[in-house]
Structure formats: C-alpha cells, structure tokens
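Batch manifest line 249
LIGAND: zinc ion
JOB: complex structure
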Amino acid sequence: MRITDEVYVVGGGSTLGFGLSNAPDCHVYLIDGGEELALVDCGMAEGDSVDRIARNIEAEGLDLGRLRRLILTHYHMDHAGGAARFREQFGLDVLAPTGAVAALRTGDERAVALDVAKRAGYYAADYRFEPVEVDRELTEGDHVRLGNLQLEVYDTPGHCDGHASYLLVGRSRRYLFAGDAVFHGGRIVLQNIHDCSIQRSATSVEKLVGLDFETLLPGHGTIAVDNGPSHVRLAADAFNSLFVPKNLH
Ligand SMILES: [Zn+2]
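JOB STATUS: finished
ARTIFACT:
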C-alpha cells in the first residue's frame, strides 16, 4: 500500500492494521531510497507472513533485490519476532536501538516481556523468540543513509526500554516512524510489563512533539499523512496536565 513514492505499508495484521500480513504483525513499512529499499519493523514471520510481505513489495513494482536493511523500533515480538528470518531470507543488515541489542542477540524472552505476553494470551505458549544478529546499533543522533534519503535516530523509551523512533527526511516531506511511542489521536500504549514507564513515555513524547515532520507513521492503527505533529501534541498535552493519554487498546 503506497503512502507516497518513497514510503509504503507492506505488512501488518488485521487487528490494528490493514490485513496485509498475518496477525499480530505491526505495520511493516518500506522505504524506497532509490538504490536501496529498507523495512521498518517486520512482524513475527508466522505462517506465510514473510511471503505475503514479499508479494506486497513486488506488487508495488519494487524489486526485492534492492532490499538491504531491516530497521527495528523495538524488540516486541509483533515488531521484531521475525527479524532473524528476514535477515536470513533476504540477506538484510539488521539495525536496532542500542538498548534492544542484547535481548535481540540472545532471544531473552523475559527481557522482551514475551513470558508475560504469552501468559496474557497474546502469543501461543509454544512460540519461541529466535535470536537475531544485529549488524548496527543505533543511538540518538545517529544518521542512517538509505540511498538518497536520510534517517535520523531518536531514543524514545517508555513503551519499553530500547525503543527508538526514526525521522525520515524525504524528498518533499518528512516522516516520523514512531513505533509504539505515540499513535494517531494522541494515544499511547502503556502495558503492565517490567520495562514500561509513564515518565519515560512522557519524556519521549515531549521529544517527538518538537520534531519537524508531516507524516506520522505509528506501529499500529491509523496513519496521519498530514498534520502528524498535531497527534503527538494531544499526547503531550495530556502528559503536561499530569494525566496519562488514552491507551490504544
Ligand atoms: Zn510494542
């Protein structure tokens, strides 16, 4: 699904997504930087999800041979569970926030809250988190060149540790890949897990509200092609009133 000629949605389950791949995949975004393509998050690679995402990419007339990198926003399974499979199948370099790297490399199910998420029924009890090698660690202030486009890295913990958001400087507009830091309508996702923090979420939202962009591309739910910052502002206003913004769920 084409957002513009440089950003596409190529995957995502049907619960809070477009039914482009299998549940519970997050939105899987594709950036076309000209000489190379990059994915932002990849979902869980359960069932035929990888094939569906590959077919979606080709259906946009994009060459899978140009796919070079997978950039992760955080280590939750619906965003990164399939990273090892994507890395191997497409020969991708995996880029991830520094705080997420240890858990990704070891497949530590407690660190990524998979143990409690299984008990809560979000994932099958026999699901296993396949560790993935990370080729490049990303921290605040880093820049990633994607062909003729550039990505800026912002650390945005709160939803969980090791969470980053990415500002893409496109040819005619700027996009914020917010992961699960903030959503359309100023919603957030706070969960009863060990590394979720209201205060860190508020600090991250305050950081994002100051960025210059047009298009808000969150990890789930509605996308705002224009006026993206107005949605982040709603979350910031709630935090600034000392209340917590509404949860996405
Ligand atoms: Zn998450």
